[in-house]
Amino acid sequence: GAGVSQSPSNKVTEKGKDVELRCDPISGHTALYWYRQRLGQGLEFLIYFQGNSAPDKSGLPSDRFSAERTGESVSTLTIQRTQQEDSAVYLCASRRQGAYNSPLHFGNGTRLTVT
Amino acid sequence: GNSVTQMEGPVTLSEEAFLTINCTYTATGYPSLFWYVQYPGEGLQLLLKATKADDKGSNKGFEATYRKETTSFHLEKGSVQVSDSAVYFCALNKPPNYGGSQGNLIFGKGTKLSVKP
């Protein structure tokens, strides 16, 4: 079936503007993750949704970052008042419910550039 | 805390050369260990995994053994091909009951591999 889909694939925005990134997980995957990858760095965990449980927001770097997910479908990551240090590739991943060590399925990411 | 350290790249090899990408970890409890690969223009995908000490994960000719005594999970392949050119990420999964998100993977910085014909 279809994999994890992210849009847009690239986004260039001016400092101070708000941006919204979208993730369509694999159908039936109850767990959804957002990661950030800065140039030359590893993947940095941002937020995790699991079904109807309260999301784990412990990785969000500031209150300018927020994310929503309705049920087990689409998620949006919003960055308000973007800063240049927000420039990175934002990756979304989903996972079926089950053993905690089942693999994550990643989208191709959104490359965000803040000028 | 939990962390993953992998060798820095880029690594450039000739076709049919032997590959080792080192990965060591720090973790509480007994994490599962993973190698993910990102081919050019594609998303990350699972390459192999090992869920307990002394397990060997293998896929596409790649192998990695979960070594608890050395806290390592080095990736190896006996004969690389041009098509193996990609970025490789070592990762660990925080085990349940040790806090944080279940299934939350902690990644290394990635190692870029280029294989020349």
What would the keywords be for this entry?
heterodimer; A: 115 residues; mainly beta; 6-stranded mixed β-sheet; 46% strand; globular; B: 117 residues; 4-stranded antiparallel β-sheet
Any overview of this molecule?
The complex is a heterodimer of chains A (115) and B (117). Chain A contains no helices and ten strands. Chain A has 115 residues and is mainly beta. In chain A, strands 2, 4, 5, 8, 9 and 10 form a six-stranded mixed beta sheet that branches. A four-stranded antiparallel beta sheet of chain A has the order 1-3-7-6, with no helix packed on it. In chain A, strand 4 and strand 5 form a beta hairpin. The model of chain A has no long low-confidence stretch (mean pLDDT 91). Chain B has no helices and twelve strands. In chain B, the strands form three sheets. In chain B, strands 2, 5, 6, 10, 11 and 12 form a six-stranded mixed beta sheet that branches. In chain B, strands 3-9-8-7 form a four-stranded antiparallel beta sheet, with no helix packed on it. The mean pLDDT of chain B is 90. At the A-B interface, strand 4, strand 5, strand 8 and strand 9 of A face strand 5, strand 6, strand 10 and strand 11 of B.
Shape of chain A: globular
Number of helical segments with 4 or more residues of chain B: 0
- Taken as a percent bin, the fraction of beta residues of chain A is over 45%
Fraction of residues in helix of chain B: under 10%
Radius of gyration of chain A: 13 Å
Largest interface, C-beta closer than 8 angstroms, per-chain residues: A-B, 27 and 28 residues
Low-pLDDT residue spans of chain B: none
What are the secondary-structure elements of chain A, in order, as H or E? EEEEEEEEEE
Shape of chain B: globular
Count of beta strands of chain B: 12
Q: How many strand elements of chain A?
A: 10
- Going by helix content, strand content and strand pairing, the class of chain A is mainly beta
Give the biggest beta sheet of chain B: 6 strands, mixed
Main sheet characteristics of chain A:
6 strands, mixed
Give the % helix of chain A: under 10%
The CA-CA distance between the termini of chain A, in Å, is 37 Å
